[in-house]
Design brief:
With 212 residues, the protein is an alpha/beta fold. It contains ten helices and five strands, in the order βαβαβαβαβαααααα.
Length: 212
């Protein structure tokens, strides 16, 4: 049976580029596409693809929210998470939720091909650069659990954007959420972390190396 690869990304132009790359490299593969997390989950259940290329940031449910559902509905499917964020915190969360690989979208196409060839053999793929970042993160980790680890995947995404000094309206537009929903996330984040303002949130993020 031909290998099936499912692309889950809300950007049609990204899917088109990935599809061309995969068709050139894996000529016999069937390339499936989904533009939302819900559509992707349904296709995983129906097709049980060998590989899923999963965008971490999508409107509604994020890729990290979807990961456990993919693992539940098709345990043999290997998931490669693609992210616009290079923060190792996202990689840690992705691997913890069952991803076989984590790549930033700025990496060379050949690295994605190498990742697919690696995970299809049942191994995890982590780039040398990311491995170094993860080692540093582990080495500097405190024995107590950092406050931001209590956040859900989407809360952490919103937290990072607020910490980067982005306005609520900008975050809403970037994540495809309403301003009201982002404001609700902000309130929940502050409550969970015991902080009272965006300024305190930014200071925390800088102290913990989450933003520059």
């Amino acid at each position: 049976m031909a290998m099936q690869i499912l692309l889950i990304d809300d950007h049609a132009i990204v899917r088109a580029g990935l599809k061309r790359l995969l068709e050139d490299e894996f000529g016999g593969a069937t390339i499936l596409e989904a533009s939302t997390a819900d559509e992707g989950e349904a296709m995983v259940e129906t097709h049980k693809p060998q590989i899923v290329l999963l965008d971490i940031s999508m409107p509604g449910r994020s890729g990290l929210d979807l990961l456990p559902a993919i693992r539940s509905r098709s345990p043999e499917t290997k998931v490669i998470v693609l992210s616009s964020f290079g923060d190792p915190q996202f990689a840690v969360r992705a691997i913890r939720e069952g991803a076989s690989a984590f790549l930033t979208k700025g990496r060379a196409p050949q690295e994605l091909i190498e990742a697919i060839r690696t995970v299809i053999l049942g191994r995890r793929f982590i780039s040398a650069e990311l491995a170094e970042q993860l080692a540093s993160l582990i080495a500097t980790a405190r024995t107590d659990r950092p406050l931001h680890e209590s956040l859900s995947a989407r809360e952490f995404e919103v937290f990072r954007l607020i910490a980067s000094a982005k306005a609520i309206s900008e975050i809403a537009a970037e994540l495809g959420l309403s301003v009201k929903t982002v404001s609700t996330y902000r309130t929940r984040i502050l409550e969970k972390m015991g902080l009272s303002s965006n300024a305190e949130l930014m200071q925390y993020a800088m102290r913990n190396g989450i933003v520059d």
